[in-house]
Design brief:
427 residues, mainly alpha, Muramoyl-pentapeptide Carboxypeptidase, domain 1, 5-stranded antiparallel sheet, two-stranded antiparallel ribbon
């Protein structure tokens, strides 16, 4: 648990009192009279008063939804508007973290070793969970590892303060209100202590970082004690992950995919994570395993991902990879889960080198990229600084039209080329 705080300053403050030359003996001062008066706290801000009023009004909403007064009052007592959360909801990160940087920490040697130890520690329950739901044990342990470092990092926010702050105002208020009611139901149904439910700033909880509504819907009892406790029970967490992944469509007995090698003349626009082809067709196009051998026979169709463009690793992915994307819709997350699972199970990690020399574009640079594409006639969609599906499709179209590898990967060199072309054409 990462809740420890170091307290500094007392010793430093005493040291400051001790320094300074003793130029003269100070005159004795009369002792002050202590009346044990405490300084009054600053008055609450108008927004704090509005937040307190919201909490009071929302009590009626909760009670109308079947929440007991005692449940509401215990869960909501002592909370205040968390300004840190309010800031996080509006934060626009200036840089996108490169996928290789994310994977360096998510799938580190320490995380792999800890995952193998975690798997071994849960061999009393994992075989039966795997048998029941059809999800491989290493996938379940990898999800556990990526979400909370195998139950070590459950979040440092008060769940009810976080959700009430979101519910009070802002773009996530509807989400916050719905999840706050779910969190209150969870306390009531599962007999949980609301003061012992640490969360992320967005209200994700437990060893799987599920939202309260997902916890209510998908959590299962994995250790047979009659409770669904995703905070303290690893078997409950692992079984719940299996139930969720299974319900999302995991195909029993099938893998997620594997790393591949692409030929020099490959049509990179087909490696968009969406173009499905049979293994026979990918083989015919010259796609090979990372070892250079033909792709093994498989009745499933597959897509190819290039998460770092044509100069980085390529991955052939089946339907089960899409299932992991349903758990968290980011290719970097799904790739972290799947490659961590491979290495926990003793299989090889990523072979090809990442293009670590590439620097991520800043928010302003991403705006410039989108604007340049639009001026050149390649519509990227909204000019919002987000490199999404539309931007990548526009980039591929531009790259193909200019005889470049159409990988849709935004780089500084590609931005410079776009800006030069815009300038040369006087656009």
């Amino acid at each position: 648990m990462r809740h420890g705080r170091t307290i500094v300053g007392i010793a430093a403050g005493m040291a400051l009192l001790a320094v300074g030359p003793a130029l003269a003996t100070p005159k004795p001062r009369p002792k002050p009279h202590h009346h044990h008066r405490h300084e009054a706290p600053p008055p609450p801000s108008p927004e704090d008063l509005e937040f307190a009023a919201f909490v009071k009004v929302f009590r009626g909403t909760a009670l109308a939804a079947g929440i007991l007064p005692s449940t509401y009052d215990t869960a909501m007592s002592g909370i205040s508007r968390n300004t840190k959360i309010a800031a996080l909801t509006q934060a626009q990160p200036e840089f996108v973290r490169p996928i290789w940087s994310y994977l360096d920490s998510a799938v580190s040697a320490r995380r792999i070793a800890d995952g193998q130890a975690a798997l071994a520690s849960q061999l009393g329950v994992l075989p039966s969970i795997e048998s029941k739901y059809g999800v491989p044990r290493e996938i379940l342990v990898a999800i556990w590892g990526i979400e909370t470092d195998y139950g070590q990092a459950l979040g440092s926010f008060n769940l009810f303060e976080a959700l009430a702050t979101l519910a009070y105002s802002g773009p996530r208020s509807d989400f916050g209100r719905s999840e706050l009611l779910s969190a209150l139901r969870l306390v009531q149904q599962e007999n949980l202590d609301p003061k012992q439910m640490p969360a992320s700033w967005a209200g994700a909880i437990g060893q799987l970082q599920m939202l309260p509504s997902t916890y209510l819907k998908s959590a299962v009892d994995g250790d047979g004690d009659g409770k669904r406790d995703l905070f303290h029970s690893a078997p409950d967490a692992l079984a719940s992950a299996a139930a969720e992944v299974s319900s999302d469509g995991w195909q029993r007995g099938h893998g997620w995919g594997y790393e591949v090698r692409l030929p020099a003349n490959f049509a990179f626009e087909t490696a968009d994570g969406e173009t499905l082809k049979s293994i026979g067709d990918w083989n015919a196009l010259g796609v090979r395993t990372a070892d250079g051998t033909p792709l093994p026979a498989n009745a499933e169709s597959a897509v190819i991902y290039l998460p770092a463009g044509a100069s980085g690793p390529a991955f052939l992915a089946f339907g089960n990879f899409k299932v992991i994307l349903k758990y968290n819709n980011a290719v970097s997350y799904a790739l972290a889960v799947c490659t961590l699972a491979d290495q926990i199970a003793g299989r090889r990690g990523v072979v090809a080198a990442w293009p670590r020399e590439e620097q991520p574009l800043s928010h302003d640079e991403r705006i410039s990229l989108q604007t340049a594409l639009l001026k050149l006639g390649f519509s990227p969609g909204a000019i919002d600084g987000v490199i999404g599906r539309g931007v990548r499709a526009a980039l591929r179209s531009y790259q193909k039209a200019r005889g470049l590898a159409a990988d849709g990967f935004a780089t500084e060199a590609l931005l410079a080329r776009l800006l030069t072309e815009v300038k040369d054409k006087g656009l």
